[in-house]
Amino acid sequence: MKKIIGFLLISVQLFSQDSLLTLHSDEVLLMVQKYHPIAKQAFIGIQASQANILAAKGNFDPIFSQYSSQKTLDGKNYYLYQSPNLTIPTWYGIEISGGMEFLNGSRLNPEQSLGQTSYLGISIPLARNLVMDKRRATLIQSKIFNQMAVQEQRNVINQIIVDAMSAYWNWVKSYRVYETVKQNLKVAVDRQSLTKKGFEFGERPAIDTVEAAQQQYFSNIAEAKWLEFQNATLDLSAFLWWENNVPIQIPDHIIPSESLESIQGANFSLTDLIDQAMKNHPELQIYSLKISALQVDKKLKFQGLLPKIDLQYNQISLNQTPFFTAPLFENNFLYGLKVEIPLRFSQGRAEYQKAKLKLLDESLFQDQKRRSIEVKIKSYHNEMIALRKQILTQEATNKNLVALVKAEESRFLNGESSLFLINARENKALEALEKLIELKTKFAKTVYALQGSAGLLGGV
User: Which of 7, 254, 279, 407 is deepest in the core (most CB within 10 A)?
Assistant: First the structure.
């Protein structure tokens, strides 16, 4: 891998055009997965979602606070008040707090205690926000969104690999066609040379030298096919990147290391593909995770249908008296009970109904996507089977046309045919071979499209 990349990055002028190197589909896959900017962008999404998890965890961070206040007027110390406090949120909506209050002065509120007071307290939601509250929902959903980002990356890589491999097999096809036309051009050049000599020795009529000029036809085609190969190289190069976002341009001395025949034996079980897709396809996973996030939202919105009943209790110690020597609710305590009950729960009912509708809507989208993926898999699988049959038929046709060309050449050597018939046979054989190459290319692209439709190319 490193060797081929090194050659790709070095200027083509450093190599002789005869020094051919090869590029394999596995190397293309590795570069796309690891270095393509879109794949990197998807990874940035994962990192951003991890940062959101950390931010959501911040809602559970212990909080230290300090409040100080002092008033003096006309030389009189009205009051000096200091209150450090530590609050510890817990998972089930319960908050534990502890702190001290220090108060002295000549003008004090009679409800306040002079000197140092310590307290240890707890705040408990007894109805709304006991099972679910906003900060718990935010943390749970942020973890779900992180999993969604991973599936988004899988989906992006899955699709870009399908596109990259389509470009790769087009590149292989263009090279194969160009090489085929070059071989035909060589045969035409050799035949023209022999025909000219035959004419000079009086063994061939002048019209045969005209027919032998078929080399110009193949020469023009070869130039056109070379340009097509260069365009295919550019299309493939668009998918190839290296470290530090360096784009790679495939030089002319890099050729495919695979033939179209190398993938013709690919075969897949339709049932297995559908089963794998239903379980692991990134798009379906994304929908499942969206539904999970909406279920969390539904639980949160359900809290709006409950009354708000919050209990707060503080055990108080005056002037360093131990906390736990006095029984609860008998001495040195402060408690409060706050109750809020909307008489109609209109907002709560509306928000809960909207949450249920969102969940239903997303479930319908998931059902449609599941069906769409299944249909696409079946379609590509049928196309693969049809192409395999067409390839077998076209191979037989091509074999017959090549045999006819050879037979016509034998007849020509025996004086029973003409260059016109040979050229006609060769043109037909070339057309048949190009069609065969095209079918094999479609088959190779369909193999990857089939795997992509099942979501198998983006990793697990």
Answer: 254
